[in-house]
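Weekly sync notes, structure subgroup
Attendees: PM, AL, DS (notes)

Item 1: joint prediction request from the bench team. They want all two components modeled as one assembly rather than separately. Inputs as received:
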Amino acid sequence: MMSSEKAHKAVDLSHHLSDLSKRRQVSPLKGLAKYMGNPNIIALAGGMPHPSYFPFADVSASALVSDSFSLEPKQESNSLSWVWKLFGAGKEKTNPITIPKYAADPANEINLAVALQYGTAQGIIPLQKFIKEFAGKVYQPAYSDFATLVHTGNTDGWSRAVLTLCNPGEMFITEEWTYPSAVFASKPYGVTPVAVAMDSEGMRSDDLHKLLAEWNEEERGAKRPHVMYTVPVGQNPSGATMGEQRKKEIYDICVKFDVIIVEDDPYYFLQQGVYKPKSERSAAAIKHDEAKFIANLAPSYLKFDYQGRVIRLDTFSKYVAPGSRLGFFTCSPQMAERLERQGETTTQAPCGFGQSLIAQLLTTWKYDGYVRWLHGLAIEYRSRRDFFIDTFFEEFHVRQSYSTRGVWAGCDVYDCYPKPQGMVEKTFERKWLSFVPPTSGMFIWLAMDFEAHPSFKEGEEESLEVQLWTNLAEAGLLVAPGWYFAADDEVNDKGKGHFRISFSNAEFSQMKKAIKIFSEIVKEFYKEH
Amino acid sequence: MMSSEKAHKAVDLSHHLSDLSKRRQVSPLKGLAKYMGNPNIIALAGGMPHPSYFPFADVSASALVSDSFSLEPKQESNSLSWVWKLFGAGKEKTNPITIPKYAADPANEINLAVALQYGTAQGIIPLQKFIKEFAGKVYQPAYSDFATLVHTGNTDGWSRAVLTLCNPGEMFITEEWTYPSAVFASKPYGVTPVAVAMDSEGMRSDDLHKLLAEWNEEERGAKRPHVMYTVPVGQNPSGATMGEQRKKEIYDICVKFDVIIVEDDPYYFLQQGVYKPKSERSAAAIKHDEAKFIANLAPSYLKFDYQGRVIRLDTFSKYVAPGSRLGFFTCSPQMAERLERQGETTTQAPCGFGQSLIAQLLTTWKYDGYVRWLHGLAIEYRSRRDFFIDTFFEEFHVRQSYSTRGVWAGCDVYDCYPKPQGMVEKTFERKWLSFVPPTSGMFIWLAMDFEAHPSFKEGEEESLEVQLWTNLAEAGLLVAPGWYFAADDEVNDKGKGHFRISFSNAEFSQMKKAIKIFSEIVKEFYKEH
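Output from the run, pasted for the record:
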């Protein structure tokens, strides 16, 4: 399947392994492994219950069909409300899937006797196969011997990567705004983030190069970072998505300075394209076929990873359900082996109920069906994003501006001013907030212009942010405060506050109501006291 | 529910927390928690997919009835073979259980919209409630404010406990033979086991006291251990079960020397009673009601834990299925809080498919039904143990001896000699192997008398063990070698080798065949060269 240009293999990067990882033994089962799976052997070595003691004779589900979601962007009225769902449930088109306790070919047919038994930390074979094929087709790693390995979600994945790669006292590179749990997971181990400036594509390559080239170990109190944590698509919280060119630049810098890239990419398939204001949009169905949908996605770092220095984290949280607690690494076999050992003494394999239901769903849908499902989801999120941003136009006076400098250089920025009151249009000097419509993911990242606040003083950005966040919460709207996402204390965004607002979950009517509350509270906040 | 004598609460034991655990922040969600769950609030803070994007409209299962297994000890012929199961599946008595996507009362009725969504590391509420009630009724902790908290199985539980309690360079106390993964999990962190001698009840209290009282920090290169890892019921690998008196002694020693007890108890409900040779057994059904079944179980350390220094690990691996990857801590609220934080940045909550199916099963069965199921399983394992030990009588000349010293002091020991050949009985000087029939768990722990081997030399026990293990594997029988379970290199059992043989999984016919292979290979091994 691999083309001849990929005949080369991942290089040896074992010098990146942490002391902890180096101390980890080979698989505890290794001694037995030679004899395992031999049908002529009577295995009385493990403490495995007989499958007749599993109290489930079968597990089944009504699985949605893979084309459940239209490729035609929907408008507000199409949205199915939760209440409707509650009383009208069962209207979706579903197919029954069943996982029997026993199968004639237990290794290759999904069955509870295997999925619910002790197994290796690699998970059940049909799931392994699907994932390996999927990663190969979609991400196209630039080397031939890439490996995939299940984990229990990207938080587990990153946590394992930290322990496998970092020693206490080390720093890792990340975007200046980042996923808080990534920091919460590493900090207690004495592994701390160092921030790289961002722009509309996420991490800046020039700033990254500067950071690494000018790294002063003494000044920083840590050796030059050799691990990067990055969310390159629908970045959390900024929503930024990184294109091919930037990724190549960053990859080359990582080669130059010998940095391992941990690519956390939970929103990868929620790439939605550029936002267009309502009047400019067409409601026509997307004509793309699924191959084109995949081909149009921003490439993974894996595609440029000719050395095998990328550890990619994928999760089913956003495409099946967060409660799946199932995801996978794609990386070199060397790293996969160490990550597997790390998993063996914690989670072992992911839950067998989840593994078997998801594997049965995916193998029933097949690769094409799953891609169709992902495509449908991307369109759903596009509709949500579009609707949500549209509501800003209703509550604010929105002006588009083209930014030529700062974090949003090269972007169409949406600046929100107060709506003109009554018949007389008042000219306002200052905008209240701005955002760049995201092209991927679940979030709008709002930059509040606190300099417009009557009692603003430099250095009080965070306290204003907290004050406004509390006002919003008290008024019935919960958003995520910007301070929560700061990778370190040095984030420098003078005069600004930030909020991350999600459009992934609420009903359309609630989103509308939310922006109404938001505009009212913001108005009150900015008004002269 | 708590009686007045338990009005006191767990004491403050925060000085046991590791540096890592102390560095862990309070729940990342804490700032938002105040507003969460308020139905009047529009929550746009989290990156949660809308539940209509979960591709399962419902999940269901054919759940075995709770009295599926007879309380009448079965004989060989009753055993359902795997092959029978495969072609005759569906003959079990089952009831359908279903988890709908939506529920009218989503917090208290099990539903996919909640179970498959992001949630706290505490898991879904109906499962929390069942577990808390179950732990209270069965283990009866000696203090009133005990907490329970889900984890993804006892390996995860122990791994989290190590990181929460131990700093690198510390040692923890354990039995001289112990669960290998417990050592594999801790060693890479620089946390190593120190062994306490065992007898027929498991860990010896006198040796424990001696170890702690005479601890020499300089000599040992580590401060006196403040954490114990112990498997008190159906101990892995020895099968020993500890009674009330010994547990009290050990608990008091742990109070005196300020040691936290991590009680890993996966085999707790597989307590089977004393083995009786076939001729002495009755096939009458057990007359006990379920309350008596519970009352007759060896008590948990929790029952004596008036200070809250026990962290008990329970798992559904042996009673539902290993693939459940679901278990729970029972401990003080202080420890539960730290263990929860540890979980938040790794596994988060256990898999929602598993959580909801198991919670639905348990709440359908109810407490009494689950206890009935556990009782049925205990009888099943008793039948398996009895049958397995019976087969030794067929292949060896078994003599009972009453041991007055050594590891099996006070026990009926079963000594296995070669069967007399032909008509003439030959008197053998030496026995080949011995074991004490376990009263709990899944394993027979065999002590091989290598001094009976013609080329035995002291110090070569392990190489003989490996040789015999390999001979067995090559002949088609896989058992677990003793060396694998040694807590440290100081295990002193002169002239002996060990094997752990499991009776939990194989068909009865296979067990019979296994002991036939075993006796043949052992015979060959011991014969004069």
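Discussion: Chain A touches chain B through 117 residues (CB under 8 Å).
Action: AL to compare against the crosslinking data before next sync.
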